[in-house]
Structure formats: structure tokens, C-alpha cells
Structure prediction request, 268 residues.
Amino acid sequence: MTSSDSVDSVHVIDKDGVRLTVEDAVATVTLTNPTKRNAQSPALWRALTEAGRSLPGSVRVVVLRGEGKSFSAGLDRQAFTPEGFDGEPSFLDLARGGDAELDAVIAEYQEAFTWWRRSDLVSIAAVQGHAIGAGFQLALACDLRVVAEDVQFAMRETSLGLVPDLTGTHPLVSLVGYARALEICATGRFVHADEAERIGLANIAVPAGELDAAVRDLSAALLAAPRDAVIETKALLQGVSGRSYEDQRVAERAAQARRLRDLAGLGD
Prediction:
């Protein structure tokens, strides 16, 4: 039983292919359109953004998962048809607009992919089957990735004449390095579970039947540490790329001073 199936969980959102449930300190965001392999659309992205804004303050861990055989096969190709989606401008119509308008629309889409790295949360993507294009970038949006042995990551945007624009390029380079990231994106090839774990895309690779249990175990381990210590540690690690070695030493000292004062009851 997953956390989203628990009788004690509370449904917060269930719309446009996204369901958010909360059980104590763990929230589960589930992509709920398995018949289309959880293909993504602007409506789904808005629902993901809403899910991030709707999290109760008690939540410490967010699990992202997809129903069915695939995590997410990427952008719904209907976006590239002249008709687009009902009530939405097609991507072809957006391309005919001005630069400022197109930039604003893409920025809105990106919001669905940004909140997963908030310093007060740890997010885990539970990934099985296809995680292609936007699906790959959604998995990359999370802090951690637990994958099933049948996982197939691929960044297909370049093969379609596009670029990855849903915030995936920064974490991909951070995880695997520039040269490997360029090769993965430019070729559009599949990255399977064993390679994903070896190069740092996946924290853990497990048989498909053990995916939910592995995520539960990782969630429990994350919740075992005091929340404020995890928040401070995450902030320290997130800031490494923008700091020199000496600046990081200063940041460590300042963070530790805050923790010691809090433990001594001397915090603000």
C-alpha cells in the first residue's frame, strides 16, 4: 500500500491528471492518466503548481509517482497539432506570438517544476517505465530519484528540433557533468536503470515490485532526522555551486551556530 492509498491520507487535489494526498509529514503527488502514459499538458502543469502551493506546513517529504507502467512519456503530442488542447493556445499559436509573451508562457509552465527543491522539503521521484522529455525533466526536478529496473530516461527535445526548457538542464549537468549531459540530450538515447544509478541520475534502483517499499523506506529515513537540521543541511548543499571553498566554510559555521543556539534554547 502506498501513502496515497492509505485510509488516513487526505485528498487535497484531484484534477487534470494530478492527485495530491497528504498523510502526516508525507505528501504524495500522483500522475493519474496511465492510459496516455501520464503525458503532460499545460493543465497538468498548472495542477502541479497548485499542488506545490497547497502543501500543508507539516509536510516534510513529497513523493512524486505515476500510475501505470510509465512514470511519464513526456509532452502530449496534441500540443503540436493546430488544434492544441481545448481552451488552450496551441504551441504553434504561441510560436507566432511575441518574444515577451512566449517567455511568460514558458515561465508559467516552468513553475510546475521548480517548487520540488524548496529548502523545507525533500522530494523523491519514484520512477518506473518511460520518463521521457518532460517526464525526465519532472523526475530531475526532485531532490532524489528511486527507479525501477525497467526505467527508461530520455531527453528527446533536441531530436524534435527543440531544447529542454522545463528546468531539467541545470540538475542534469549537476548530477552527471556537462559532457555526459550533452551526450544524453543531443542523442536522445535511453538511459536505463543500471547506468542511471552508476552515473548519479538515480539514488537507488530496485525491481519494479519493490519501488513503493523502497520509497517508503527512504521517506522514513529522511523523517528520522530533526527537520531543522535537514533544512539547514539541504540549504548548505544547494549553495555549494555558487560558493568558493572558503565561502562554504563560512556558511557551514553560520549554519552550525544557528543549530547549536536552537539546541541550547537560545534561538530567536
